[in-house]
Design goal:
By secondary structure, the protein is an alpha/beta fold. It has two domains: 132 residues, Rossmann fold; 119 residues, 2-Layer Sandwich (Hypothetical Protein, Haloacid Dehalogenase-like Hydrolase, Chain: A, domain 2), CATH 3.30.1240.10. The protein is 36% helix and 20% strand. Helix 8 links the parallel strand 11 and strand 12. The relative contact order is 0.16.
Length: 272
C-alpha cells in the first residue's frame, strides 16, 4: 500500500478505487499485499472500496470478506526478548496482535515519543512520519504488561539511520537464538515476522486457494519488503517513485508516481 496505491498522504484515491472496481467487474481478481496490519486498512481507503482479499503484515495473515483465512503468530518468547532489547537500546516499537489494536508498554512511552519529536529528519518519508505521529496520538494502546498470545509482527522505527542499523545488527544476533524474518520498507524501519514468512508466501497461499500459479498474476510494489513478491510473480512492476535497485529487479515501471495515481494509470492502460 505505502508508496504504491497509497499517496504520501496515506490515502487511496477514488480514481484507484474506480479502476479496481472495473477490473473486478471483468473477472480479474485484485488483492492487496501490504506490510500494514489488516485492522489499519479501513481508515486508508475510500468509502465502498472492495477487493478480493488482503495479504497483510507482510504475509503474516490473509483475509477474505473480512475473515482471516490464514494467520501466523510470533513466538511469545521472541516477543518478550524483542521488547526487552528494544527497551535497552531505546528503539521505537509497535507490537501488532493478530486481532485488535497495536500496543506498546507504558514504561517505554518516553523514548517512543522522543523518536518522533519535531522537526522531522529529512530522510524520513512524510507518510511514515505522519503514520508514527498518528500512532502515538491515537492508535497505540499503552499497556502495563504484554497481553494476549497471538501477534502478527513488530514494527520498529528510528529517526536516525545509524540507530536503526545498529538495531538491525542486534536483531541479527537475536536470530541466532530464535529464527524470524526481518522486512524493511524504508531506511528508517524494520519489521519482525515469523521465520520464512513474507508477501510472496502470503500470495502463494491465496494462489493455491484459486488454483492459480505465479505466472497468472501481476505484482506492483516500490520497496524492499516487496522484493520477495516481485521476484515471485509472473509479471513484476515497480512504481516510478521506487528506488533504482527495485526498478532493476522488475519487468516494467509505472509512468507515474503514487501521488499521481501511478497504479490506476498502469492498470487502466494494460487491462482496461
Amino acid at each position: 500500500m505505502d508508496g504504491t496505491i497509497l499517496t504520501h498522504q496515506n490515502q487511496v484515491t477514488v480514481k484507484t478505487k474506480e479502476v479496481i472496481d472495473q477490473l473486478r467487474s471483468k473477472g480479474i481478481l485484485v488483492f492487496i499485499a501490504t506490510g500494514r496490519s489488516f485492522d489499519e486498512i479501513e481508515a486508508l481507503v475510500p468509502e465502498g472500496f472492495q477487493v478480493d482479499g488482503f495479504i497483510s503484515s507482510n504475509g503474516m495473515a490473509a483475509h477474505v470478506d473480512g475473515v482471516a483465512v490464514m494467520e501466523h503468530s510470533l513466538p511469545l518468547d521472541l516477543v518478550e526478548k524483542v521488547i526487552e532489547k528494544a527497551r535497552k537500546h531505546k528503539v521505537y516499537y509497535e507490537l501488532f496482535p493478530n486481532k485488535g489494536s497495536r500496543f506498546t508498554l507504558k514504561e517505554d512511552r518516553h523514548f517512543l515519543e522522543n523518536e518522533i519529536r519535531d522537526p522531522r529528519t529529512e530522510t524520513v518519508g512524510i507518510n511514515e512520519w505522519m503514520s508514527r505521529k498518528e500512532a502515538i496520538k491515537s492508535e497505540i494502546e499503552w499497556k502495563d504488561v504484554i497481553e494476549g498470545d497471538k501477534f502478527s509482527k513488530f514494527y520498529c522505527f528510528s529517526r536516525s539511520k545509524e540507530h536503526i542499523n545498529t538495531w538491525k545488527k542486534e536483531l541479527e544476533e537475536l536470530k541466532k537464538e530464535i529464527d524470524f524474518t526481518m522486512s524493511i520498507s524504508s531506511e528508517h524501519n524494520v519489521e519482525i515476522m515469523v521465520a520464512n514468512v513474507n508477501k510472496a508466501t502470503g500470495i502463494e497461499y491465496i494462489l493455491n486457494k484459486h488454483n492459480l500459479t505465479a505466472n497468472d498474476i501481476v505484482g506492483i510494489g516500490d520497496s524492499d519488503n516487496d522484493i520477495p513478491m516481485l521476484k515471485f510473480v509472473g509479471h513484476s512492476v515497480a512504481m516510478k517513485n521506487a528506488p533504482d535497485h527495485i526498478k532493476e529487479l522488475v519487468d516494467d515501471v509505472t509512468d507515474f508516481t503514487c501521488d499521481e495515481d501511478g497504479v490506476s494509470d498502469y492498470l487502466e492502460k494494460h487491462f482496461l
